[in-house]
Design goal:
Blueprint: H1 2-15, H2 21-27, H3 29-35, H4 38-75, E1 78-85, E2 92-95, E3 101-104, E4 109-115, E5 119-131, E6 140-144, E7 147-151, E8 155-161, E9 164-171, E10 173-178, E11 183-187, E12 190-195, E13 198-199, E14 203-204, H5 207-210, E15 217-224, H6 225-233, E16 240-242, E17 252-258, H7 262-272, E18 275-279, E19 285-289
Parallel strand pairs: 5-6, 16-19
Antiparallel strand pairs: 1-4, 2-3, 3-5, 4-5, 5-8, 6-7, 7-10, 8-9, 9-12, 10-11, 12-13, 12-14, 15-17, 18-19
Length: 303
């Protein structure tokens, strides 16, 4: 059967030299269809169309994925949020999933947002010591009122009281910016105060001493009594007030005190300053001037 088909095909080539092409095609149509089945040609066309369709589909999927990735990178979506807080007098250390550590001081509240490209902290109130794991392409951002802080990997302390934010650097570099656009780049041992009115000048401090609170210690170095009492108040639920004597406010306090018991710290004050403690009926303590020693009375001498 195969030999016969080949002989007929050879005859077609000979006849094409002397006959009309249309007649030859008509005469040998059956042979041609047997030699080159139309089904094979149609099948190849279908396969080709399917391949092109698959390629087009893959290209469309790739473009869609690129658009999704571009959108994600641009908008930096949040995929997890955590809340941390401490009560008055409490301290708390937290190990984060990225290897960073945060230590919360007394009466502190913050939200930690995990974004695809950034790590963000919203500090509502209080004081936090951040020890940030280095991540070059995933910066660590802190928002505290009108102040914005940006780091990659470093250790720094942030204290917020209303709109006043104090930033102290223990290691590395920290960029600080407020709502007015004022900026400062702080390095180890530097501190700056920021609020909605501006960014204060950079100060040099002993950062190891200023962060002794994480070890439960309160340090005063010729600190005015009014400031010392305000600091002690942060660790006490009971109100602490100054008496009517205005000169008390400027009395100087020096020393290192344990802050786990604010009442015990207050009890030490009469030992180092001329003050007296008055426990109020409704709770709390008033710090008054110590009563002056009465002059000694001379006994009459009888002759």
């Amino acid at each position: 059967m195969s030999d016969s088909r080949n002989n007929n095909f050879d005859s077609l080539v000979f006849d094409s030299d002397v006959a009309d092409a249309e007649q030859v095609l008509s005469r040998h149509r059956t042979v041609l269809q047997g030699r080159f089945p139309l089904e094979d040609i149609h099948g190849l066309a279908i396969v080709h169309r399917r391949v092109r369709a698959r390629r087009s589909k893959r290209a469309a999927i790739a473009i869609a994925l690129l658009l999704v990735v571009a959108g994600v990178l641009r908008f930096d979506p949040t995929y997890r949020t955590e809340h941390f807080a401490t009560a008055i007098g409490e301290r708390r250390e937290v190990a984060l999933s990225d290897g960073s550590h945060i230590t919360l001081n007394t009466n502190t509240a913050l939200d930690l947002e995990w974004h695809l490209r950034t790590r963000r902290v919203l500090l509502a109130t209080g004081q936090v010591l951040f020890d940030v794991e280095h991540a070059r392409y995933r910066p660590f951002l802190v928002a505290a009122g009108s102040t914005q802080i940006r780091v990659v990997g470093t250790a720094f302390d942030v204290r917020r009281e209303h709109d006043d934010v104090t930033v102290t650097v223990l290691r590395g570099k920290v960029a600080v910016r407020n709502a007015n656009g004022d900026e400062a780049l702080l390095t180890i041992g530097q501190r700056a105060l920021s609020n909605s009115t501006g960014l204060g000048s950079t100060q040099t401090v002993d950062s190891a001493v200023t962060t002794l609170w994480r070890d439960g210690k309160l340090v005063f170095d010729r600190t005015p009594l009014r400031e010392a009492l305000a600091e002690i108040q942060r660790y006490s639920r009971e109100p602490i007030v100054l008496g009517a004597d205005l000169s008390l406010a400027e009395q100087r306090v020096s020393g290192v005190f344990a802050i786990d018991n604010a009442s015990a710290v207050l009890d030490l004050l009469p030992q180092i300053l001329p003050v007296a403690l008055v426990h109020l009926a409704g709770g709390g303590v008033r710090v008054d001037s110590a009563p002056s020693a009465k002059p000694a009375q001379l006994k009459p001498v009888h002759r």
